[in-house]
Amino acid sequence: MFLPQRRLILAAPLIALLAACGGGGSSASAPANVTVVAGENQAFINWTAEAGVEYWLWFKAGTSVSPGGDTTSYRLNVSPPYVLTGLTDATEYAFTLNARKDGGEGGPGSAVKTATTRLAGSSWYTGGTLGSGKTLRSVAYGLTTSGSSTYSYVAVGDGGAIFRTPDTSTGRNYVSSEPLTWTTPTGTVVDSSVDLKGVVYANSIAKYVAVGSNGTAAYSSDINTWTTVASTATGTTQTLNAIATNGATVVAVGNNGALRYSNDGITWNATTVSPAITANLRGVAYSTKGVWVAVGSGGTVLTSTDAVNWTATTQSGDLTAVAAVATTSNSVTTYTFVAVGADGTVLTSNDASTWSSTVLAGNLTAVSAASRLVALGTNGTIYTREITGTTWTAQTSPLAGSTLYGLINAQSIYTAVGAGSASIYAY
Fold first, then answer.
1. Residues 101 and 228 reside in one and the same domain
2. Fewer CB under 10 Å: which end of the chain, C or N?
3. pLDDT above 70 covers what percent of the chain?
């Protein structure tokens, strides 16, 4: 629906020329109803557009800005709603828009709006409805089709439930006043006898891959049409509870120690775990450190560097989900792993080998690691923690009675789904 446009900033004299001089057309009045909402490294800008009018966005750090200002950055020919990316966090910015017709000179700027960027995860909003009474287990984000320039979110759940968002150029088409909308695929989907537990988008194979009950897997290259892979192909009849990818390989984990991997989402292969386990595996993640981590009941933690051979250790808690993130500061990269579970169990590690434990309130069911750590759980529980911090902070949930199962960070936005067709997000 909208495309952040990245243009080189012109030298000051040329900027002034563009702001003041036209090509035979006319200037236009400043747009009405301009709103600016800041997010993480970005701002969501909306206004009332008129047909045949071209709009320019001007912005800079501080509290004032004017069209053609010497130190002003700008975007040409923008359309609402517009997402301005590449901003610096914890910084106040000023914004104004002006307009012209038929290549004319730019008109007056709209009233200046200011907004301060901040990390996502503190303020949460209710998203669009996903069916009626569905239990959603997982959410993914990726290209709409192979080779396309549009993106979508995909959510899956019990009863073969699959939902998707409309195609957009970035996927970031919502703020608090414009919740992300969900629709159902238009082609062949998964049978309602299958409960889908996990879904990912694998970039290198350009497929969405989902897994679920009875060892079933499914894949799609266009979101709308899904091909089911039976347990005879996955090699297990155990319920597969979660799935992760490094872009080229997908790993699925499930009950009774079920652990499988695939390089195309179609053909699945066996793995080796030492020592052998029978724990119910419920979460899996990949770190750019080159390490896979899977977690499950009885504090089970598995690690692998090739997705084939796994080493098992026992930590604390009944673990339900795991995530990983890499952060770089002063050319030094730090890897963070975080696992959550029942009774508020939280495990963190920098190497997936040595873990420290924290206990929070409630049962935790989902976790994401991006610019900060976010853990979700029963009764709408939401906790956040800074990557370099140690303190978890409870956040206000817009769905205090719902259990949240699936959580993803994409385009600096956290999106979660859960029981009762729940959908929430934080930007």
1. no
2. N
3. 92
